[in-house]
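Q: Hi! Curious about what Carbohydrate ABC transporter permease looks like structurally. Here's the sequence.
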Amino acid sequence: MASPSVRVPRPSRRRSPMAPPRSFLWTRRIFLTALTGFVLLPVYVMFSSSLKPLEDVSGAFRWLPSEVTIRPYLDIWKTVPLARYFTNSLIVAGSATVCSVVIAIFAAYAVSRYRFRGKRVFTVTVLSTQMFPGILFLLPLFLIFVNIGNSTGIPLYGSRGGLILTYLTFSLPFSIWMLTGYFASVPRELDEAAHVDGCGPLGALFRVVVPAALPGIVAVAVYAFMTAWGEVLFASVMTNDTTRTLSVGLQGYATQNDVYWNQVMAASLVVSVPVVAGFLLLQRYLVAGLTAGAVK
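A: Let's find out. The predicted structure is below.
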């Protein structure tokens, strides 16, 4: 004969005294959801407008297109030489990023590892350049490039090289400052161990310090690339029709008679693809580099 089953009551879960109340959790979720929707709303408007005919974009605003078309994505390459602008932007931003990272690595390693006369003056001077607005350097750089071209024949004004040098003046101070703090967090004992194993200063730098500071280097590279990729002011002054970049070339969709807003939105989405892809691929290193560089 089977014995009657006895139901054991389950112990009630007690909330931790340190846990926030449920009302706070729901309020936070609602707020974050609303904030996410607010941030994604312009992206939706841009994407939906890129799929609309020009009549829908030029007239009254509509949330949904009356006709979905991919024609704007095909026309953006014909209305303006977008492929050439895209190539110029990749060359300028990529070269500025590589030069900024390489120079910042050597400068930050010297500041963080060696004592030399004028070290403090150098650090203060590098950081002080960040206090001035970029437009303040526009006329001096323009005159310098023109004078160098007239006296030496080196065409800096209107060339990709001049634009790369311009972007280096803005990305290098932050890059050096951030990598200096990151390199300073790497123990000097690792350098000494590398010297014992037969490495010179450069060997210790590239075999020990650089791998340990990889997140910071990635963060610096992303910052330098972003500085050069979306800049408009200097690119509009320092370039010509041949060396024009994407940020300036997008103005070509606005003619004297009309503005092709659907093509503007489509081109803006195409332009943002490299940046978004870079963030997604390097997100782990970028967050780690910015966090560590901010506290060390």
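A: A fun detail: The CA atoms of residues 194 and 207 lie 8 Å apart.
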